[in-house]
UniProtKB/TrEMBL annotation:
InterPro entries for the chain: Cyt_trans-like, FAD_synthase, Riboflavin_kinase, Riboflavin_kinase_bac, Riboflavin_kinase_bac/euk, Riboflavin_kinase_dom_sf, Rossmann-like_a/b/a_fold
Name recorded for this polypeptide: Riboflavin biosynthesis protein
ATP-binding recorded as keyword: yes
Occurrences of domain Riboflavin kinase (ranges): 183-307
Pfam families tied to this protein: FAD_syn, Flavokinase
Function: Catalyzes the phosphorylation of riboflavin to FMN followed by the adenylation of FMN to FAD.
Pathway(s) served: Cofactor biosynthesis; FAD biosynthesis; FAD from FMN: step 1/1; Cofactor biosynthesis; FMN biosynthesis; FMN from riboflavin (ATP route): step 1/1
Enzyme Commission number: 2.7.1.26, 2.7.7.2
Gene3D superfamilies reported in the protein's UniProt record: HUPs (3.40.50.620), Riboflavin kinase-like (2.40.30.30)
Family affiliation: Belongs to the ribF family.
Root EC class: transferase
Sorted UniProt keywords: ATP-binding, FAD, Flavoprotein, FMN, Kinase, Multifunctional enzyme, Nucleotide-binding, Nucleotidyltransferase, Transferase
GO MF entry, a single one: ATP binding
Species assigned in the record: Maridesulfovibrio salexigens (strain ATCC 14822 / DSM 2638 / NCIMB 8403 / VKM B-1763) (Desulfovibrio salexigens)
Amino acid sequence: MIIAKSIDEIIKPEQGACVTIGNFDGVHKGHQKLISSTCKKARANGLASVVVTFDPHPLRVLVNSKTPPFITLTSQKLELIALHKPDIILALNFTKEMAALSPEEFIQRYLIEPLGMKEMVVGYDYALGKGRSGNYETIVKLGQKHEYGVERLDPVIINDAVVSSSRIRDMVSEGNVWDVRPLLGRFYQVRGEVVHGMNRGGRLLGFPTANIKLEDELFPKKGVYAIRVEVEGKVLPGVANIGKNPTFGNEALSVEAHILDFSKDIYGKDIRVHFIQRIRSEKKFNGLDELKERIGIDIGLAREILSYPESQVRPGLHLSESESGAE
């Protein structure tokens, strides 16, 4: 597998390529269907399988600060795409100059000339080129001209609605982390480095916490969650608070994870937090004793939630064979 950030890093496949293209924020079930279908079609036709995506997300370039937080950081997105084992992942640097290209110019410059595209697989609502003018009908007409085939896939429907990045973003933002699992094929996850916090969890409260350095990604609604924490190849149960700790008058948003029955020093380590179920909203308490009592209740509820088999998480990102398109 080749993961490239420029067409200059790629040697044109001699046999030609079957390509899918998209932002793939979240790499949800709809995206997984696109990517796995592309890999299967490529194998069936003796072509190289290629997934083309963008970094940064086009909205960051075109809209800038008004964009919502994204479901996956680029590194996580590429890891999730790689699970399908395409021959090439091309994460193009998206620029305003690229956005100004016509559909034909983009397809020639980035898909036909460097990749030798023979087949293209797109989503039901995909469009490319300046002002998204390259809709399905346009892409098909260009395919007739440049001799490549086009297949458009129907949307994936779960719980009577289309699986989409915006739907997932709304659900996570509302704290519906349990219900979002079928759309993603996994629990919602954030990752980051464990940093020093305000030194209150263990010293004042008796519940040491791993404080995560926040990056530019989507975080669930403020509150307390049952979680599983992935650290050094192990998955451990825990409870997390997302918020500003109003009892202490904080202003900055933080994610503090208390790993159950765990005392190892993990400062500076990168961890992944899988959000299993929301327990309650953030609340201001009337002092430490009331807060400590509530934390004890939260931990008890988290242990109960995490006792269910459906809450299990395996270490590392993974997909089932049917999702990955394995033979």
